[in-house]
UniProtKB/TrEMBL annotation:
UniProt name for this protein: Glutamyl-tRNA(Gln) amidotransferase subunit A
UniProt key word Protein biosynthesis: yes
Alphabetical list of InterPro entries matching this protein: Amidase, Amidase_CS, Amidase_dom, AS_sf, GatA
Lineage: superkingdom: Bacteria
Domain Amidase: from-to ranges: 1-443
Keyword Transferase applies: yes
Catalytic residues (positions): 52, 127, 151
Length: 450
């Protein structure tokens, strides 16, 4: 109840929750108390959790930050929600996000922007901005997020928390509203790598209901946390330290890397030569997949339906015109254009070829080093309302987006503050990238820094 009261007191201003499930939380808390009394408690029993509003939750609104789904109550739970509830976690509610996870500032939400708890004139990042802000404000110790092009790592960086995007296929996407299906991946957000390890262990694994989830044993992520770092080879991609990188961010990241050297790691420079193509390739592939996924919102089966349609076409047109926000419409237009006959080869096929090159860059780098390190974002959190044109917003994703195209995992770890620290400063995130299924190593490396 103390967290629920805290949410009531503080979240009117921060706006990190879209729905608070007070009654369900209190019932689950009673069940957790009983389990404890019977000696049946497990590591996550009774721990509170916030869930990004992209995950289906049975009988509870699942809006995905959109007017289109404002009236939608999911008839079933996402696999990860089911797993965390089975592990005894108590859901506090659903967190705010950019509409259909499209954005890097949480300003694209139908429910209004989220404020960064460190500095309420700044954005919390996006699209999992509500989850990151809720943790930073002490409203929830842990949360679920999703990351299609940085949406776990960038808000984690902006809010001074830890967020992990797992390898594509490590965590089931069943019941996660689809944005770009070949890139989307759910993952943990929390205060520390250790807490992320607990959550990841509970949500990872094969799911018969998601054919892209991978049948591979889930390791004990906690057991790996304390392994020594002696001899760890860290690569610094030179493309991640170039023009456009804020000076305070760069010095915080270089400082963090010195800490790793002092822990016994070896550092060298590497190159990911196709980095400059990641943003353009992503902003062809992601909208293409989104335009296909979002065609299901037609005003017929579920979601927003316009008043008094005169015929079927009017129903489709007005329901979609009214239900979707500007950024979502922009992506649907881009996606239907690049997939259309005559443009497909020039855009979509080309972008898929670039995607392969980007993946190969990472595989080549991991021949030389164990992990890569760099900034999670080129700047600290920017001001609310500061980025008006979409391209400047898309460029926020320059360091996060490539790994989704490659399918590898990445984590963002708090690494200091820009500006007057720590009371008025804005947090900075160190990003650590690893090979496919190296989550255990990333958590270990992140844990050593904390
Ligand atoms: N900012 C990126 C976009 O707008 C990534 C979003 C995400 O990871 N869901 O598409």
């Amino acid at each position: 109840t103390s967290l629920l009261d805290r949410i009531e007191r503080l979240d009117g201003d921060i706006n990190s929750f879209v729905t608070v499930t007070r009654d369900q939380a209190l019932t689950a808390a009673d069940a957790a108390d009983q389990a404890r009394a019977k000696g049946e408690s497990r590591p996550l029993t009774g721990l509170p959790l916030a869930i990004k509003d992209i995950f289906c939750t049975q009988g509870i609104r699942t809006s995905c930050g959109s007017k289109m789904l404002d009236n939608f109550q999911a008839p079933y739970n996402a696999t990860v929600v089911e797993k965390l509830q089975a592990a005894g976690m108590i859901s506090l509610g659903k967190t705010n996000m950019d509409e259909f996870a499209m954005g890097s500032s949480n300003e694209n939400s139908f429910y209004g922007p989220v404020k960064n708890p460190w500095d309420r004139t700044a954005v919390p990042g996006g699209s999992s901005g509500g989850s990151a802000a809720a943790i930073a404000a002490g409203l929830a110790p842990a949360a679920l997020g999703t990351d299609t092009g940085g949406s776990i790592r960038q808000p984690a960086a902006f809010c001074g928390i830890t967020g992990l995007k797992p390898t594509y296929g490590r965590v089931s996407r069943y019941g996660m509203v689809a944005f770009a299906s070949s890139l989307d991946q759910g993952g943990p957000m929390a205060r520390s790598a250790e807490d992320c390890a607990h959550l990841l262990g509970a949500i990872a694994g094969h799911d018969l209901r998601d054919s892209t989830s991978v049948a591979r044993v889930v390791p004990d992520y906690l057991a790996e946390l304390d392994a020594p770092l002696d001899g760890l080879k860290i690569g610094l991609p030179k493309e991640y330290f170039g023009d456009g990188l804020d000076a305070e961010v760069e010095s915080a990241i270089r400082e963090a890397i010195r800490v790793y050297e002092s822990l016994g790691a070896k550092v060298c420079e590497v190159s990911l030569p196709h980095t400059h193509l990641a943003v353009p390739a992503y902003y062809v592939i992601a909208p293409a997949e989104a335009s296909s996924n979002l065609s299901r919102y037609d005003g017929v089966r579920f979601g927003h339906r316009c008043e008094n349609p005169v015929d079927l076409e009017d129903l489709y047109k007005r329901s979609r015109a009214e239900g979707f926000g500007d950024e979502v419409k922009r992506r649907i237009l881009i996606g239907t254009h690049t997939l259309s006959e005559g443009f497909f080869d020039a855009y979509y096929r080309k972008a898929q070829q670039v995607r392969r090159l980007i993946r190969q860059d990472f595989l080549d780098a991991f021949e030389e080093v164990d992990v890569l390190m760099g900034p999670a974002a080129p700047t600290p959190a920017f001001d609310l309302g500061a980025k008006k044109d979409p391209v400047s917003m898309y460029l926020q994703d320059i360091y996060t987006i490539a790994i989704n195209l490659a399918g590898i995992p990445g984590i963002s770890v708090p690494a200091g503050f820009a500006g007057k620290r720590p009371t008025e400063g804005r947090p900075i995130g160190l990003q650590i990238l690893g090979q496919h299924f190296a989550e255990g190593q990333l958590l270990n490396v992140a844990h050593k820094f904390q």
